[in-house]
Amino acid sequence: MTTSAHDVIAAAQRLQGQGKPYALVSVLRVQSPASARPGDKAVVTADGIACGWIGGGCAQPAVLRAVRQALADERPRLIRIAPSEAGAVRELDDVLEFGMACHSGGTIELFVDPVLPRAALVVVGDSPVAVALAALAPRVGFDVVVVAHGGDTPHFAGAVEVIADDGADAVAQRLAPGAFVVVATQGRRDVQGLRAALALRARTVWFVASARKAAVLRASLVEAGADAAAVAAIVAPAGQPIGAQTPQEIALSVLASVVAARRGVVPAAVTPITAPATHEATPVAPETAEALKARVSGAAAAARARLQARAADSALALAATTPAAAQVSSCCGGAPADAANAPAVLTTPAAASCCGTDAAPAAASATVLPPSCRGG
Predict the structure, then answer these.
(1) 277 vs 176, higher pLDDT
(2) pLDDT band at 4, cuts 50/70/90?
(3) Which end of the chain has less neighbouring CB within 10 Å, N or C?
(4) 289 by DSSP, 3-state: which?
(5) With contact defined as beta carbons under 8 Å apart, do 184 and 130 qualify?
(6) Whose CA is closest to 168, among 144, 185, 154, 149?
(7) Strands 22-31 and 107-115
(8) Where exactly does CATH 3.40.50.720 map onto the chain?
(9) Contact by Cβ (8 Å): 200, 175
(10) Alpha carbons 182 and 167: distance in angstroms, whole number
(11) Tens digit of each residue's pLDDT (9 = 90 or more) over 197-249
């Protein structure tokens, strides 16, 4: 390894320790005439070459432009600088070609590899969600700083730093602007946590709270003099709609939103999944409640009508199955008698006719006598 390579690596380590983004640019192929050679390297920041060599002054503007693009989207790229109209840019397969009006007439291909510091995530609060988020975020590339009033460092094992003072001025003095911030106070020092988040001039602020609670606190912050645009930009409720219930699940949903924001991805709309019925009543708008009341009253009236009709049908059916009352004629030629006037049954061997005729035969000893024959 040459001294020049040692210098390049040392410069890269120095920038990384300072938390500054840079790109490692390497020369891959050269078509003479060109001053660079394959294997030449340079550490390049958004401001220019920090250390190393990748070619003369004709190539450097194109390299700097490519480095700035790579640092912005965090994607490596292969570029070619070739003789053509100055400033012309073409995409050839996976190569980005820059035109160079240089007298040398050479061509050079370079690989631009962006190196960014670990993204900073500031977690405000000491709630169970804050603890879970501080433990989970380092696993996906975040350096976590916790801001919690009276916070205990062992309580947040995954954090690189715990700041026990959540005052806005104290936080702004200790932390650089541009971090992602999640306020997970969950009812304990909510206003103080939001003020601290706003003082950091964060890239994005998420607030773990319901929409109603967030609206009330937004209004109180604006009334107290906070910047209205910054307050309106607070994202609440925080997290992706994954049906999270436990602190760990809520932390996961919030972290998904943070990662999406870091990568510049706008989450697609999610169709909500219908939740199982619960014992809690669902709030209903006044108009719907009135319509529901009318529907219930109509249904009750219809049910009563059906019951009454059913009762009437039962009564008719019962009457139809009851035998009609038998009518019995008088043996004396009188008017017929109703069976309801219970006819008498004689079991004597013989009896005189009620009309004065001869006695009836014994075979007819069981004789039914109408009421008229009994003195009717």
Answers:
(1) 176
(2) confident
(3) N
(4) helix
(5) yes
(6) 149
(7) antiparallel
(8) 119-262
(9) yes
(10) 16
(11) 999 999 999 999 999 999 999 999 999 999 999 999 999 999 999 999 999 99
User: Is residue 195 within a helix (H) or strand (E), and if so which, with residue range?
Assistant: helix 190-199
Evaluate the omega torsion of the peptide bond into residue 21 and state whether it is cis, within 30 degrees of 0: no
Amino acid at 367: T
Residue 66 · residue 50 · CB < 8 Å? no
Of 56-60, 315-319, 326-330, which range is least confident?
A: 326-330
Residues 6+ apart with CB under 8 A from 2: none
Name the strand (E) or helix (H) holding 308.
helix 286-320
For domain 119-262, give its CATH number from 1.10.3720.10, 3.40.50.720, 3.40.50.300, 3.30.70.330.
3.40.50.720
Burial track 193-216 (b if 16+ CB lie within 10 A, e otherwise): bbbbbbbbebebbbbbbeeebbee
Residue 335 above 60 pLDDT?
Answer: no
Report CA-CA distances (Å) from 114 to 8, 70, 108, 175. 15, 6, 19, 24
Cα 249 to chain centroid distance, Å, stands at 11
Digit-coded pLDDT (tens) for 115-173:
988 889 999 999 999 999 999 999 999 999 999 998 888 889 889 999 999 999 999 99
Rounded distance between C-alpha atoms, residue 152 and residue 330, angstroms: 114
Q: Which two tokens stand for residue 357?
A: 């005729």
**Residue 145 corresponds to which tokens in the numbers above?**
């700083």
Amino acid at 74: E
Write out the two tokens for 130: 């804050």
> 66 by DSSP, 3-state: which?
helix
